[in-house]
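Translate structure to sequence.
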């Protein structure tokens, strides 16, 4: 049953629908929000409107209370052990405050990085979730926090 639940979550349908016990409910446009998809290579130029490559429909209640966008990861394996892989869409909530240990999208020297973020005195530690990458220690004023990772979407 666990696999069926995971499949239902992945396809955003009910378990009953997968088992043929109910019909698929049609989308109600007033309950959906279009969230932009931004496609940039990790470690390359910062977010720009010309990097928007499309939009993804999501339930309005899942993106209330803020500004959101999906980041399409390209060429990055630094968070692979957190389940974030090359080609994934990561939902980012734009915010400047991050709780220690959350996955944050930051800019560092005009490059974008998605890492666990920790604040220690007057420094940040950017920690990858891949042993191939060393932690980055940087002073608070040297990075800009763009937002927090909320979810990961992957196509099979």
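Result:
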């Amino acid at each position: 049953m666990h696999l069926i639940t995971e499949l239902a979550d992945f396809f955003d349908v009910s378990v009953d629908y997968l088992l043929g016990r109910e019909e698929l409910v049609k989308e109600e446009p007033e309950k959906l929000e279009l969230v932009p998809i931004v496609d940039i290579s990790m470690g390359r130029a910062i977010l720009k409107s010309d990097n928007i490559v499309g939009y993804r429909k999501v339930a309005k209640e899942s993106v209330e209370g803020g500004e959101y966008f999906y980041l399409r990861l390209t060429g990055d394996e630094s968070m692979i052990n957190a389940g974030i892989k090359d080609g994934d869409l990561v939902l980012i909530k734009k915010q400047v405050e991050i709780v220690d240990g959350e996955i944050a999208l930051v800019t560092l020297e005009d490059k974008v990085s998605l890492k666990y973020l920790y604040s220690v005195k007057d420094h940040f530690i950017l920690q990858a979730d891949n042993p191939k990458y060393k932690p980055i220690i940087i002073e608070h004023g040297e990075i800009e926090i763009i937002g927090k990772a909320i979810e990961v979407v992957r196509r099979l």
